[in-house]
Amino acid sequence: MPSKEDDRNKELTIPSSLKWMPRVVTEIEKVVRDMGFDEETGDFLAIAVTEAVNNAIIHGNKGDARKKVHIRFEPRKDRIVMRITDEGGGFNPEKVEDPTDPKNISKGSGRGLYILRTLMDKVDISSTSSGTTITLTKFK
Q: What is the CA radius of gyration of the chain?
């Protein structure tokens, strides 16, 4: 039997197009409001989800509108868990270069995971040849 917390879960599936980002932001704003996060934490959550969805669209699905990005919000009493899944070919997070290394400072990309790890309490990445799921957790 599903718990009452399961009833609060929200799922959103969008095509791989940045034009859907306002819808994603609207959903995270609702979750933040419903959970009573303070404004700063709400901003962190919105930035993190936006970054993860952008990466799923651009890097994971390579902008292929036939592929989808799946976003799941799992509000709990003491935390929010957000799962962003693409349908791309996967990647090895160990091979992502450190954006704070002086040789990478001037690069125009490569900061996404760093941003997520800075803003969230926990970041888990599961990547296979059929897609990547990034799980973001923020405690209250």
A: 15
Whole-Å CA distances, 126 to 19, 109, 129 = 26, 21, 10
Residue keyed to tokens 């959903």: 27
Distance CA 25, CA 7 (A): 21
Q: Where are the domains of the chain?
A: 4-139
Tell me: domain 4-139, CATH 3.40.50.300, correct?
no
DSSP-derived secondary structure letter, 123: E
Residue whose token pair is 């979750």: 31
Answering whether pTM is above 0.85, one says yes
Q: Residue 93: which residues within 8 A CB-CB, separation 6 or more?
A: 113, 125, 127
* Mean pLDDT, rounded, for 110-115: 85
